[in-house]
Predict the 3D structure of the following.
Amino acid sequence: MKIGIIGGGNVARFLLKSINVDRRLPNCSVESVFLRRPEVASEWECDYGTRIYTDLDAFLSSGIDIVVEAATVQAVREYAEQVIARRKDLVIISVGALVDQELYQRLNELCRQLGTRILLPSGAIGGLDVIRSAMAMQQLDEVSLTTRKPPQSLLGRMVEQEEVVFEGSATEAISRFPQNINVSIVLSLAGLGCDKTRVKIVADPRVTKNIHSIEAIGSFGQLCVKLENNPMPENPKTSHLAALSVLSTLKKQTERILIG
């Protein structure tokens, strides 16, 4: 499988090293990367054995089978439809873009017409298999997410006691904290939707990691999942599990026996 990546951040570097250098995915390679910063082109081509493009059309014509968006919400808005129109499957990391229902519906319809797929990694949370199973029969009643983060990452300052900085719907949460609560959107899309998924964000001076607690209630019973995410070694702002979930999503595309 030939992979293309949009973006040049820490997740892109993680995928390049994992796939092209460490060979974590047999018979897969990152062939092309679309960047707006051509100054790193020679370094990346040398270090990772990939090709760098600054023109989207040339990038999409480079023989790739699947594209990974590892950039920003704005990149999804700008490029997702063009990627799908070229009959490429698309992995979206910046899932906050899909809170826009008009964009979501356009992408969904385009995929239906062209037989392509959009894949959303689970990111820094778990339990999505249970949420989706309950929703398959419309038997999910409540879903909530409580996220605790160090105050510096949320408020840009320290506080002496824990402080609830937000409580409301996932739709409202992503508009207020677009860089901090992408997990609420993938949870919403798997379950009750952005308007019905409840989110609480807490700045907690006692924690050093991002902690996500998910609760769901339905005819299946009750789900409680708590994840304390270690940061990526190269970038403490990104959860290591979020990067691993992208690698797992790509790996699943090469397998014949699928779990979940």
Remarks:
- The domain at 2-119+241-252 is CATH 3.40.50.720 (Rossmann fold).
- The mean pLDDT is 94.
- The longest helix spans residues 101-114.
